Amino acid sequence: MRMYDLIMKKKHGQSLTDEEIRFLVNGYTKGEIPDYQMSAFLMAVCFQGMDEAETLSLTMAMAESGEMLDLSAIHGMKADKHSTGGVGDKTSLILGPMVASLDVPVAKMSGRGLGHTGGTIDKLESFPGFSVAISNEKFIENVNRMKLAIIGQTAELAPADKMLYALRDVTATVDQLSLIASSIMSKKLAAGSDVIVLDVKAGSGAFMKTYEDARKLAETMVKIGNGASRKTYGVISDMNQPLGFAVGNILEVKEAIGALNGRAPEDLNDACMTLASYMLLGAGRVKEIAEARELLAETVRSGAALLKLAEFVEAQGGDKRYVYEPDRFPKANLIYEVKAQADGYISAMNTEEIGLTSLVLGGGRETKESEIDLTVGIVFEKKIGAKVRVGDTIAVLHANDKEKLSAATKRLQNALTIGQTPVTPVPHILGVVEQ
Ligand code: URA
Fold first, then answer.
1. How does strand 148-152 pair with strand 246-247?
2. Which of 172, 215, 219, 397 has its Cα between 20 and 30 A from that of 433?
């Protein structure tokens, strides 16, 4: 088999066999196929697409390019949740403890912030001492004992995706549906859970800007997951404004702790309840979504979910006192209120720009090596649909550097649109793909 022939085949819009796809993924991972040939292939995929069978083959070849976590030593159906990336998304910190406190094992693999989006691992590291670098044995032991553990993506997991993602990033071949779907699903399949709930975000702060594109991505990933014998659901959610009110690591952790104390903003509550319900349904813990929602609400009312968060933080080396006394978290030195520049209604929030505002403050990484400032970020007081008058506070910026604060203020102001007609916000959950 020759890479040249496979590039030619894809260029002419023909489908590749499973054997051919495995040849190119394995060859590239071993360094036998050079970047320039793989780049040409990826670009051909961008123009010609991949069919269902090819997308599944690509996913499996990437998943099997490294270690496949064997979670069979964990008792019961294990559930995982994955978001395609958003702003203000702290759902894992809330639904992980909720689901685990109902005895469904949550064996989760999370990532760090990427571009304008935040990551669960950075948020968890806000707890002094917390570590996601635990061994596979410890991971399994923790899930068996207390039903919840979160690890980071190791270099051994789906290395083909890691290499291909870096190449796609610099060859303008990221935004192809089959490539995105196989990239995400290869990591999820390698991470070993039986139930996968995907939060596919649509809107200005998401990878997929339109509902239609998000739905296609959800359908493709659900097919891949079910094709690989994992119970998979795709929840499509709105990302035309940040989720909840807080954006930035410690600020989001505090909002998550508030949610576990019964003070979740409506959209955040809806996100957590919906995603967690499908985790329970997939794991066979409930027969219907309504039953799941009732059980989940009770985990908050009874304090069981908050207790589980404290137990989980402690089990991974973190200081659990912060769960009960969030005022212990350090605070940024500079606080600045961003005010409405006109009377009217907030009609749009450029959410990617809002994510970048947090990044500019130091809340995200400019380069792979950057240290992030866990204390900075934004807390909104108003979101889409709110009526405002000139001078009303829309958001509060938390910063540690005057220059960064000034740049962030301009950026945030430009990200907000105030219109003259009343706006009805869309529901947070836009749809669910089950099959
Ligand atoms: N997230 C991933 O892991 N891969 C993609 O291709 C896009 C988003």
1. unpaired
2. 172
Active site residue 186: no
- Give the number of the atom of ligand 1 that is nearest the alpha carbon of residue 165: 6
Residues in the chain: 435
Task: Answer yes or no: is the C-beta of 109 below 6 A from any ligand 1 atom.
Answer: no
pLDDT at 138: 93
Given the residues 116, 168, 230, 382, the one annotated as active site: 168
pLDDT digit string, tens, across residues 239-283: 999 999 999 999 999 999 999 999 999 999 999 999 999 999 999
C-alpha distances in angstroms, 230 versus 185, 190, 221? 11, 11, 11
Task: Assess whether the C-beta atom of 279 lies below 6 angstroms from ligand 1.
Answer: no
pTM, two decimal places = 0.93
pLDDT at residue 161, as a whole number: 92
Quick one: 3-49 is in which CATH superfamily? Transferase, Pyrimidine Nucleoside Phosphorylase; Chain C (1.20.970.10)
183 C-beta closer than 6 A to ligand 1? yes
What are the strands of the beta sheet with 195-202, ordered from one edge? 148-152, 106-110, 79-83, 195-202, 231-238, 429-433
Residue type, 249: N
Q: Is 274 within 8 Å of 429 (Cβ atoms)?
A: yes
Q: How many CA atoms lie within 13 A of 433 on its CB side?
A: 25
* Residue located via tokens 């212990």: 328
Q: Where in the chain is the domain with CATH 1.20.970.10?
A: 3-49
Fold (topology level) of 331-419: Aldehyde Oxidoreductase; domain 3 (3.90.1170)
Task: List pLDDT tens digits, range 207-236.
Answer: 899 999 999 999 999 999 998 899 999 999
Fold of 79-325: Pyrimidine Nucleoside Phosphorylase; Chain A, domain 2 (3.40.1030)
Task: Record the tokens describing residue 1, joined without a space.
Answer: 């088999």
